[in-house]
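stuck on whats below:

***
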Amino acid sequence: MILVLSLHTNPLFTRLADAERILVAGAGGGFDVYSGLPLALSLLHQGKEVHLANLSFSALAGLPPDHWVADDLAAVRFDSAVHQRYFPERTLAQWLHRHGYPATVYAFPQIGVRPLRAAYRALVELHDIDAVVLVDGGTDILLRGDEAGLGTPEEDLTSVAALAGLDGIPDRLVVSVGFGVDAHHGVNHVQVLENIAALERDGAYLGAFSIPRATREGAMYLDAVAHAQHHTPEHPSIVNGSIAAAVRGSFGDARFTDRTRDSELFVNPLMSLYFAFDLPGLAARCLYLDRIEDTHLMRQVHSRIAEFRESTVTRPPRRFPH
């Protein structure tokens, strides 16, 4: 059944209107949690209790015992592991602390579906979470498996599978921001649009909205990304750097790090759009989700997806009409 709304209302925020304790979680590791920051700040400014989490690429194993609140679930603070130069979760906690927001960012190690689901369950029970928004910086979370290229789907779809099998949460949602940024990973964005159209037909697409820099949340997001770039100069986020450039109105090959010196960027206004989806509806369209269901290690996820790709006929890539 499709919920009928007025045009001036936002379907994503309508779904979250009755939620009191919301978890905003980065799906794909690295700086993905930053991609959810404008949304998280907006919910905080509405008086919601908001918690942040991220599937982490950081060296979590070196954290002291008092950081671990459950198996595979670490609570990262602004003063955690100050010797580690690359630690997006701590860098975000430092920015949150500086601005007076709750400054704990939860982190999951790179693990398979089964242990990640257990860690999510522990976090949901810890804070009595009644809605989860899974955030992908990029669009590969929207790919079902038979596209010309899948980008880097392992972490994203492990997160989707973990939450798809986690019952008892009234609302589970997905947002994708950074349309076009995955092109250098082989993602065909015409096929992304084709998938969004199919999700609309299924009733799982909740529309799109931008992150304007004139908003309080847009301005604070730009500040948080600049703070992260300053504190992680050797490995800044290309995804969030591109999104931030789009929010500022940059276009084309906008340079903000030497990491992109060998490639040509196409920063554009579509990168600053949040595309929102119902998570169970998105999960139902993934052709290989059942194959990764019983995984315990990320390398198992990788091999299962590779096996699926060897046995499936892929859709040929399509070009945008000129």
The mean pLDDT is 95. The beta strands are 21-26, 49-55, 68-70, 73-76, 105-108, 131-137, 171-177, 205-210, 273-278.
